[in-house]
Amino acid sequence: MKQNAAEFLGTFWLVLGGCGSAVLAASFPELGIGLLGVSFAFGFTVLTMAFAIGDISGCHLNPAVSIGLWAGGRFPSRKLLPYIVSQVAGGIVAGGVLYVIASGAPGFEASQGFAANGYGAHSPGGYSLFAGLVSEVVMTMFFVLVILGTTQKAASKALAPVAIGLALTLIHLISIPVTNTSVNPARSTGVALYAGSWAIKQLWLFWLAPIGGALLGAAAHRFLTTSTSAGARSHRAGATPTRRASASA
Questions:
Q1: Residue 240 has pLDDT above 90, yes or no
Q2: Which of 106, 131, 141, 228 fits a 20 to 30 Å CA distance from 246?
Q3: What backbone phi and psi angles, to 5 degrees, belong to 63?
């Protein structure tokens, strides 16, 4: 229950911090933080929560990440559904809080965006469905690859949150114009329910593409680490006779 609660709170923070920066501060007159600021806001939410709850739940904050860790052999099947439910619930509650705050400004219309993800007419740059699909799959693949790589035993545990937070920042810098950047079904669901029917109709893509990308990232990590381990074992096996011969001489 504590792990699920940590995932709920962490995802709440990600959606409120990331989407909140987009809705409330990105284009604020004269002082708006713009796309650069929104990108860093998403990265900072993951970075701060990784330090806060990383030792409790692993700080997934994302159904695609949980699925990627499961596919990578780093997360048990029995925890997968409770984590996903907690993450989606955290995103939805955060979306509700953000809606209450944003609706306090005159002229606010959630249907005009509300940081929801979209393609075609609802893409910030007018990008097509196919472009959005490719973007979300590739970005999520590399996000999961970074997570699996920086959290493996040989990596520095202290620096993992920094690398993961910067990876999410970079992903947003690249892909906000394409889909408003999802790579996270919980983040997409959390605001789509308040943005209106168009966002709900397009939500399928922001579940399908991130999950597909996560599975590809897990497969890539397995391939890279299996090859490395096999090569290291082969090298050690080949070196053994030489050491023994040297010692005998």
A1: no
A2: 228
A3: -55, -35
